[in-house]
Design brief:
The complex is a heterotrimer of chains A (83), B (111) and C (101).
Chain A lengths: L3 E5 L4 H12 L5 E4 L5 H13 L8 E4 L2 E4 L3 H9 L2
Parallel strand pairs in A: 1-2
Antiparallel strand pairs in A: 1-3, 3-4
Chain B lengths: L2 H18 L2 E3 L3 H18 L13 H5 L10 H7 L7 E3 L13 H5 L2
Antiparallel strand pairs in B: 1-2
Helix pairs in contact in B: 1-2
Chain C lengths: L3 E6 L7 E5 L6 E6 L2 E6 L13 E3 L2 E3 L6 E3 L15 E2 L1 E4 L2 E5 L1
Antiparallel strand pairs in C: 1-10, 2-3, 3-4, 4-8, 5-6, 6-7, 9-10
The chains are: A alpha+beta (83), B mainly alpha (111), C mainly beta (101).
Chain lengths: 83, 111, 101
Amino acid sequence: MKKVKVYALSTCLWCKKTKRYFEEKKIPFEAVDYDKQDDDCQQKIMEEIKANGGTGSFPFVKIGNSCTQGYNPGEFEKLLEKK
Amino acid sequence: MNVEQRKQALRFLFGPIVDKLGYKFTPVEEDAEFLLEQEVLLEAETGMPYCPCQARGKDRAENMKIVCPCIPFHRRHYDAMKRCWCGLFVHKDVTDPDKLVQFPESAIKEG
Amino acid sequence: MAEFIEAAALAQLRDPGLAPTFPKGLPVLLIKKNGALFALENRCPHLGCPLTLGSLDGDVLTCPCHDWRFDIRSGRFLDAPELGLKIYRTRIAEGKIFVEV
């Protein structure tokens, strides 16, 4: 199974919906609330997000080697099925 | 601070602005209440009602572009989604926001 | 009915300079720049901040609270043409500035 990582903000509605999507599909995922991290950790996360074509808009989701930004179940499914 | 009162105040302040921009509060009342509450709490913490779904950085000019309502600074992107990033506001013609898709700005730049 | 109301003494306003006034109780910001006089609503349409402590760069006034930028000639908000500050006509007579409200 592909590794799933959700970068989120604790204040973000769509991040909550994203986490709920993977929970309901019973797909194991790692969730990191960006705003709950210290400055150094935030900097590292943002560098990683930007290196993968993202911006400061959350959620940012890594599925295997692919990334997507925003709550988009269609895109999540596509990336989960991608060979 | 009274969170409920400030939420009402933000509704009162934001309503006429987004109306002129062609938007309205999301008709999903539960979502609007949650998002407004997050903004009130962010405002209490930072002094600014920031977008609850976008991260602040160290650059003030960039941070000011995510103070709600941030529609003017992301117009093309939000108009393409028919919704602002956090979903507090949707285009006036939207009746079912759950049918809208959230996508990054890069998706429209790429066409 | 609109009428010209005394807002400030002309000598009160530097060039360039900003002065908050309240003709008939309305918050009106007077701006003098290169000899020209402008009168704008002194309340940012964003969150209602007074613009008195805003910064003026050329014809652009920036709100001190969240940096919304306005053209002092038209009142227009630079990042969305639908939004802006109300502008008022002015008249100078006998060393006084009058604003039409």
